[in-house]
Amino acid sequence: MTARTRPIGSATRGTTNPNRLRRMDRWIAAAHAGMLRRAADPVAVDLGYGAAPWTAVELLGRLRTVRPDAEVVGVEIDPERVAAAKPYERAGLSFAHGGFEVPLPAGRRPLLIRAANVLRQYDEGEVAAVWARLCGRLAPGGLLVEGTCDEIGRRHVWVALGPEGPRTITFAARLGSLGAPSDLAERLPKALIHRNVPGEPVHAFLRDFDRAWAAFAPYGALSARQRWIRAVASLQADWPLVDGPVRWRQGEVTLRWDALAPGASGGSVPDPR
């Protein structure tokens, strides 16, 4: 390749496992079902799918529960990974060599770009430019979902962005393995991973969440799910949550991005101690 056509970005470690991104996929299919149903061209991009194509295969299956004619293009910057994925191609599923330029055939723009565990290796100062580039590739009304999870998908935090920029942030966990909500701090996306310090809104949110989790510990005798639901519900007075019990039951909570954005005032009162 010439410098002019070289994909934009750097190769990831390629770590991947079946069902690693199931929480993110299910949230997309549920929370953004209307977007999928309305789209004229329901094509999604699994950006940086890694050394094996499992996440692209699974994304297609989950999107098709909402939109049976959805398509997925797995995009990888490592040509050897693309070659290894080619045997898995079928109607609606293909793989392409590329990076943040998000290569699609002329005239097509993705309704959805999912970039999971892609930006961890970048500097925080590079995130805004990558977000802007990816959002610039979206179809009108499209969505970028960018975030990080652990190796088997038990803990996950992601940001949802539209062409105008970041909209929401979601925290999701397998509740049976969760010690405290702040355990999710290690999976904050790159834009926030270094911001979990006193004075930053994400730190205040996780502090309040841990306190609520502790306050509702007696509900743990019923189930971790019941404890989570009640802890999340108690946050509504101080934080701008945008979902409800249906999603909370899945071990999720979503709030407006502007409440946790670096330098934002946050949604909670300061800690008096």
From TrEMBL:
Recorded superkingdom: Bacteria
UniProt-listed Gene3D superfamilies: Vaccinia Virus protein VP39
Name of the protein in its database record: Methylase
Native source organism of the sequence: Streptomyces olivoverticillatus
